Structures are given as C-alpha cells and as structure tokens.
Known about the structure:
The chain is mainly beta and 220 residues long.
Amino acid sequence: MRTTTVGELRILLPELDPDDLDTISDPTDDLSDATIENVSWRGGTLDGVTIRGSRLVGVDVSESGWEGGSLFGCEITRADFSGTTLSGISIERCAITGSRFTGIRLTDVRLKDVLFEGCRFDYASFTRVAAAGAVAFVDCLLTDATWSSCRLPNTVLRSCQLARLELDSCQLHGADLRGNGLHDLKTGLGNLHGVTLDEDQLPDLTHLAVQDLHLTVRKR
C-alpha cells in the first residue's frame, strides 16, 4: 500500500505498474487499467465516465463537461482541466501533479485520499465540494479562486498561494493552513473556525479580524 504524509495527514495513493496498463486514447464509459498519454478530449462530454487504476499524462480535458462518474486509483500528471465543468463526480485515491485547473468549476464533487501537488487552481470555483477523507494541496496556486459552501475538514494546504481566495459558508474545522500567507484571503472569520495556524500567521489573522469586524485602528 502506497501512502504519503503531508503535515499530520496520511494519504492513501495509487500504486500502478505501467507494464500492467493498456494504452487507450478514446474515452468510454469505463476506462480501467489504462495509460492515457498526450490525448486531447478538449471540449468533449464525459458524462458518466469512470476511470480506474489508470495513468493520465499530458491529457487535455479543457473546456469539457463531466457529470457523474468517478476517478479512482489514478495518477494524473501535467493534465489540462482549464475551463472544465465537473459536477457530481467522485475523486478517490488519486495523485494529481503539475496539472492546470484554471477557471475550472467543481460542483457537488466528493474527494477522498487525494493529493494535489504543484497544480494551478487560479480563478477556480468550488461549490459544495466535500472531503470524505484525506485531502492535501501542496505548492498549489489558488489565487482568485472561490470556495462556496464547501465541507473540507482536516484538509491540509502547504506552501500554497492564496491571494484573493474567497471563502463563503465553508466548513474547514481541523484544516491545517500552516505555511501559507493568509493576508489577502477574502473571508470572514467564521470560515476559519477550528483551523490550525502557526505563530507567524497571527499578524495575517489580525488583519483579517480587523477587516471582518470593520474595526477602526488609530494611534493613541
């Protein structure tokens, strides 16, 4: 069993042997045990598609629509999901690295044992995204993104860029936000209830409190 640890979070990851995978280029309703490399599904419709135990490398899924279906036990590298709409899908036990999710729209997506590393989520929209297990973002770009009504308890964010990330009606209790700049977050304090911070982030938290409470700070 392959695992990785981010902070205090242990994540189960896929363990794939490339020699056991078949090369596939066309999407079907059920893709299993496949290598899918440098394939373009740009602008396509992937509704109900399930991909299991597969490697996706350099795949272009940008501007596509994907409703229902799932990703399970997959390694995804250098994929492009820019402008894609994901709705009602499940992503479980996946390692996703160096991929682009600029402007993606995720609605009612379920995450469990998912590691995003070195990915771009700028201008992404997360709506009712829920973590049912371990989820981590490492060295990810989340600037100008929006998280609305998301349930992401115990999620870990490490060394991420969060400038102008907007949080609205989110539950992040137990989330570990250490190692990120929080100064430019667009959020009320309620969205940060129960999160873990380090001492160096307290000035950023003070700044957010002054904004949220509409305080006037004057010199004596």
